[in-house]
Amino acid sequence: MKLSREFYNRSTIKVARELLGKKLVRVLDGRKLSGMIVETEAYIGPRDKASHSYGGRITKRNAVMFGPPGYAYVYQIYGMYFCLNVVTRPRGKPEAILIRALEPIDGVDVMRKFRNGRTLTNGPGRLCQALHIDKTLNDEDLTGDVLYIEDYATPKRIVSTTRVGIDYAEEYKDKRWRFYIYKNRFISRK
């Protein structure tokens, strides 16, 4: 069952935890590519110095973050990798969750082709490459039929720790807003 818009329109921290164990589905040429979400990071709007919406400034790049909830925010890093985020709050509250890692489920053979046989989905850029998620899916409705998240499993134990690669974010670098499924071998970093 697909997650509803109401699921996303809640506390970003709560949604980041509850996305663990859900299944991310990408429909491509009539075929499902999917993976269980095993790692997320929350970005809490204008006050979060690691967030693209820090300071509340809307740009062409981050406009999707400003709502409504239940949409994909896809951006490019290092000029070559895409990252998938889930928008969580109503219009004017720019918060989102980065999907950091998946445990592959459906379409693994296709994922291997997209990744040239390399590690598939243990990192935000890798999972986007494996599921063929790029800028064309920015602002995609996650309650639609192309890219969506559905109920799947309930993790037994969740770890909360600091986010990855945000040393510049001053006091926000120490926020424990990264969540992952304990002992899952597909997380991006231990």
Task: Please provide a written account of the structure.
By secondary structure, the chain is α+β, with helices and mostly antiparallel strands. It has one domain (5-181): 3-methyladenine DNA Glycosylase, Chain A (Roll). The protein is built from 4 helices and 8 strands; from the N terminus they run ααβββββααβββ. It has helices at 5-8, 12-18, 108-114, 124-130; strands spanning 23-28, 31-44, 72-77, 81-87, 95-106, 147-150, 158-161, 178-181. Strands 1, 2, 3, 4, 5, 6, 7 and 8 form an 8-stranded antiparallel sheet that branches. Strand 1 (23-28) and strand 2 (31-44) form a beta hairpin. The longest helix has 7 residues, at 12-18.
Structural features:
alpha+beta, eight-stranded antiparallel sheet, 4 helices, 13% helix, 190 residues, 3-methyladenine DNA Glycosylase, Chain A
Ordered list of secondary-structure elements with their pairings:
Layout: H1 5-8, H2 12-18, E1 23-28, E2 31-44, E3 72-77, E4 81-87, E5 95-106, H3 108-114, H4 124-130, E6 147-150, E7 158-161, E8 178-181
Helix/sheet category: alpha+beta
The structural domain count equals 1
Overall average residue pLDDT: 96
| Number of helical stretches of at least 4 residues | 4
Percentage of residues in DSSP E strands:
25-35%
β-strand number: 8
Q: Main β-sheet, in a few words?
A: 8 strands, antiparallel
CATH architecture type = Roll
